[in-house]
Amino acid sequence: MSSLPKRIIKETERLVSDPVPGITAVPSEENLRYFNVTIEGPDQSPYEGGIFKLELYLPDDYPMVAPKVRFLTKIYHPNIDKLGRICLDVLKNNWSPALQIRTILLSIQALLAAPNPNDPLANDVAEAWLQHETQAIETAREWTKKYAVLE
Amino acid sequence: MGQVRGRPGPSPSTTLNQQSSEDPSLTSKDHSSSSNSGDSVRNSRESLVQGIRQPVSQSSSESERSRPSQAPQVKRSSRSEREKLKEAHARGLLVKYDENVDGGYLAPYGTYNLNLDYQISVVKEAIIERKLAPFYTPLQDFDASWTDEDLLAVLSNLKLHALPHEAEDEDEDLEYDEASVDESLLSKKELRRHLSKKFNKQLKLKKLEWQAAEEKRYLEERATSRQAASDDLKLELYRTSVECPICFLYYPRWLNYSRCCNHAICTECFVQIKRLEPHLPHDHDDEGDNNGEDQKAKAEQDPNLLISEYACCPYCATPNFGVIYSPPAYIRTGLGGIPPALFKSPLKSSGNGNITTDAITDEEDLNAFEVQENYFRKASMASAMSIATQRRGSLPATHPQVITTDFIRPDWEQNLNNARAKLAKRAAAASAIHASNMLIQSNENEIEQKMIQEAMRLSLLEEESRKRRASVK
Ligand SMILES: [Zn+2]
Ligand SMILES: [Zn+2]
Predict the structure, then answer these.
(1) What is the ipTM, given to two decimal places?
(2) CATH at A44
């Protein structure tokens, strides 16, 4: 598809010219609405040291609807389920067309720094988080080492 | 929850009639472009004010809304009625160069292909009344260092509408091969689907044709028409273009501003913003686990649970999004103003007494010209520029200058009632089946029971999908 809305072109350019620390987002060559994303685990979080891969897709009616984002790297987090789906209000009903790819990825990075087990998507993880927090954080650390650290 | 505002309807605008009578050529042109459906194009002139007096179902009260089981029946209109409405809507979305207000138009450029279900008549009237910015043709790029010549060159290459989109090649609707279908072999259900696909394709093709005809007319007539913008007007508008924070396109700096936080938004983005579909109040997202199923079951028991929430400001999330618009004080052209071809920049014309008047052919225009001169005297450039930024604080959604998202989509409440009624019917059907199952179970003929269950299931499925299709207007 050759006619890409100006907004998507400009967002893509700005992501390259003014990148967000700890985040990369590169459009795929075949489909410029599909981005390969990486997010570095925030310092002092159980995800520290990990590099998490995500996919991000801009639907036809973006920016009137949110981008579709999913973790590809396995992650132990109360708001991210086995399929990598993310429970984040701004990706759902609190999406606003004034938000951008950049702001969404920053929100996801912030979610890694501050898991919210009271509003879970992965119920088992959330339960573990609420009942045995130290142990849950340890598991998250192990998963990070196992799945998100490049050899 | 939604408070229905007692906003008085927009007053009928006399300029509308004036405009359409200036434009008698359209009817015959449209005829030649789509000869296969004569009656559909007969009323092309209506397109300007398409449905402008359409009654708005805003009358239902709070109490009605709290008893949705008694909500008005989903109005079932015939296929041909629905098709006529769709076609009229599509006509209302055409950009015509001679339907202009202050150098912009009454229909969107076409940056967005979807969500164009706003009430066209309401938006057009708001634009003519200068309560909403006109749909200006956007610039894809803008550089403040461009010379006037550069800028004029860019502007003269602009089309009225983005059509045809390059993506049209892959358009599913257009790919439908209706010729290969033998209608006589189809079941009732298949026929309905086929006819709807066929209609969608034909309507899309018509839209392309209609807009192409408008582009052609614009190119042919713009050099001589008084309804085409003068260079002065173009420069005045685009010399100081600003970027809309949502579509990232450049527009004349007179944009709409959010009532709550005074942020700019172009009209094309504004008409995109609307309530979400009626949904269940979720403190949580339906995707995970069996939460969604629970919610669905709950809703079938009580369709009241379905809600529709205000659209929020994209910038500050204040509910009941609305915008205000301050038109340029010294530009008033097109509908309700002077012909845009006669516009002269106030800076150029002031101090030089002999404005060329050869283009002015009748008294009406002379008067209009004087009106414009008055504008120049009263409004200095500086004061005009400060209007948009004068405002401090926020305005309530009920303020007469505010245009809200609900105002341009007054059917949100009907949609909610329809969704609730549909759910109530489905629940009723489900419990009827449940009751008959109980009867059958007391009977010991198991084979019969299974057959009846299956028949009911099938008829229910049929009924549901019929309703679903009927509701997709
Ligand atoms: Zn915009
Ligand atoms: Zn706001």
Answers:
(1) 0.92
(2) 3.10.110.10
